[in-house]
């Protein structure tokens, strides 16, 4: 062990010894002293339900809590229909539904439109429609690649799927994974939410990330009852 390693261990031991220990009763008292308005909690829950597309739950929660959603709940059903169409590989149907919702979404977002067209190409390849896929790539996607290098790289990567009879050995086989559909579906979902002046992501997960970050910062200075399992939110005493 080097001298620097030894000094580090000694310093760590000293720091650990000087950590402040907060008893459970004191910690719980501090938590109970924090006052959060029920209205704010209801808004947080409603934000999550609306953003994630739980329209039935959002409607029931609106009736029970009185919390009004920031957007018309009817639009959630339309948005989820678009997302589901992409997840099922029905990209043409999804594009039609987006245009029915708001034609400006695709008109003002060329990257999203390209990714939807790219997903159409992937679905053609998935279904073994090689000639149709080549024709679609040449007529619909090649012009995009000529104008944008990043689009060209994505197009070339997608067309590479056609070079392999056994896609299990293909270096770009991830494009055929369900995760690729989900990625495109989430991109469309975010674009629709943005067009409705709504956040792309629910606030609740970000608050939980902030909680974990705050605990990590506090761990360096104190030993206290912390939340280790977010699903239960139970306080656990620290090892002393």
UniProtKB/TrEMBL annotation:
The keyword Zinc-finger does not apply. Residues 75-132 form the CTLH domain. It comes from Cucurbita maxima. The lineage of its organism: Eukaryota, Viridiplantae, Streptophyta, Embryophyta, Tracheophyta. PANTHER family: RAN BINDING PROTEIN 9-RELATED. SMART domains: CRA (SM00757), CTLH (SM00668), LisH (SM00667). This is Protein GID8 homolog isoform X3. InterPro entries: CRA_dom (IPR013144), CTLH/CRA (IPR024964), CTLH_C (IPR006595), LisH (IPR006594), Ubq-SigPath_Reg (IPR050618). Keywords: Signal. Residues 1-16 form the signal peptide.
């Amino acid at each position: 062990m080097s001298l620097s390693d030894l000094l580090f261990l000694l310093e760590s031991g000293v720091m650990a010894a000087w950590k402040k220990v907060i008893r459970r009763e004191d910690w719980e008292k501090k938590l109970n002293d924090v006052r959060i308005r029920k209205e704010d909690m209801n808004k947080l829950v409603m934000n999550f339900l609306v953003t994630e597309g739980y329209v039935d739950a959002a409607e029931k929660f609106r009736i029970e809590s009185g919390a009004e959603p920031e957007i018309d709940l009817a639009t959630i059903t339309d948005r989820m229909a678009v997302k589901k169409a992409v997840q099922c590989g029905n990209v043409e149907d999804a594009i039609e539904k987006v245009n029915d919702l708001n034609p400006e979404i695709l008109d003002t977002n060329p990257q999203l439109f390209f990714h939807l067209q790219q997903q159409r190409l992937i679905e053609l390849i998935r279904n073994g429609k090689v000639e149709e896929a080549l024709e679609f790539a040449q007529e619909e996607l090649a012009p995009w690649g000529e104008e944008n290098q990043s689009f060209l790289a994505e197009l070339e990567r997608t067309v590479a799927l056609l070079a392999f009879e056994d896609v299990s050995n293909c270096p770009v086989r991830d494009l055929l994974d369900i995760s690729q559909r989900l990625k495109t579906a989430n991109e469309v979902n975010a674009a629709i939410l943005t067009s409705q002046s709504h956040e792309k992501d629910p606030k609740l997960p970000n608050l939980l990330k902030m909680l974990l970050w705050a605990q990590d910062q506090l761990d360096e200075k104190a030993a206290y009852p912390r939340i280790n399992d977010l699903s239960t939110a139970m306080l656990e005493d620290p090892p002393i």
